Amino acid sequence: MFEGQTDADVVDAIAAAAREQNVQCARELAAIGELYARRAPVGDTERDQWAIDGHANVVAEISAALRITRARASGHLRYAIALRERLPRLAEVFARGDVCFRVVATVISRVYLVQDPKILAELDQAIARRAPKWTRLSTAKLGERIDMWVVHADPAGVRVPPERDDVRFVEVKPSSDGMAQVWAQLHGSDGVALDQKLEALADTVCREDPRNKEQRRADALRALVDGADGLQCQCGSSDCAAAQRKTDTNVVIHVLAERATIDGDSEAPGYLPGFGPVSPALLRDLATTAKLKDLVIPPLSPEPGYRPSAALADFVRCRDLTCRFPGCDAPAAVCDIDHTIPYPLGPTHACNLKLLCRFHHLLKTFYAGVAGWLDLQLPDGTVVWTSPTGHIYRTEPTGGVFFESLSQPTPMALRGLKMPRRKRTRAAERHARIMAERRINEERFAAQPPPDF
């Protein structure tokens, strides 16, 4: 690609690519803003208090088009609306490639509480002139620079960091080969207590246990979940009391695997929903204490009634594993089972059933029709979606990717429903959040002694 070019040419290419990246990012957000203006008009009062209003419908379209999660699509739309409706001068600078998305996102966040149109327009103008020089600043210094302008124009509009107590969390995410990673932020006292408990549990095995200290501390987390007062020792000795500890638990974990792998006749991996593949060795180890249940392939004939049997529901959840809307990865445990062709016209059969999270289930139900979302399900479980703009998206059942038997074809006017309603409109909720933050600032200013000039 760069054959025959000098080092200077390569540096120029880096700078040009970065600028073009800014331009294209601005163009993407501008297009999202235009779609919002067309799809979620201000006058759509009929759906203002629907749980899934016009705003949420646009988020679904963005999610499908970009193949990203609904949360990420919602963030894209939030930035697009801010640039279109609140910061048009900054949007112009962004469109020329003079600033990067990091700067734009920080500005949007820091001026969020400013509500007076005149003050906001003045800030937009001032920040847009200076923002190209701020790209070199660190994120912290960039926030300080923007706040300097906000506090001068509207002191109550300055964002105050949340109390540390408000940002506690525990997050568990898949790693690799059936492993998981855990991140947490706790009260200091709780962190110390957890650390001491893990340390104590890790020391409840004999000296012949083959695991190192770090591995025993990791296994101690499972012991905490089980409510055990010690780890089961892995020394293998019949004389070790710790090795005889039971590991019973009331927590149910579903793992998918082929019977041949459990029997040792295959090395095909299993699947832990929400986390991914599980190695054959780990599967066989889990199988020694697990309850095994065969998955029933649905018969050719449909079931009577609307609600699928437990066996059919299990098959659909194992075949799909996640929500079937494009871009959504909500796990089967939180999904509804949807009739693609509504019952009773559509049969209660695997070829007409799929998983949809509650959000996309409501979206499909209330935003369907010629100008809405349409879905077509194929015998192998593939779902073909048509968006309101006519774009086509295909989603295939995740279970069929891991298990060939689940990818085999399974051949074979909405009355009384009401969209759940919001307590207040999205605009009213946003206004309430802004005013609440502003009141905190105003009370803080009122409690401070007057300046001594």
UniProtKB/TrEMBL annotation:
Chain ranges of the HNH nuclease domain: 311-362
Pfam families referenced in this protein's UniProt entry, alphabetically: DUF222
InterPro entries recorded: DUF222, HNH_nuc
Protein name: HNH nuclease domain-containing protein
Superkingdom field: Bacteria
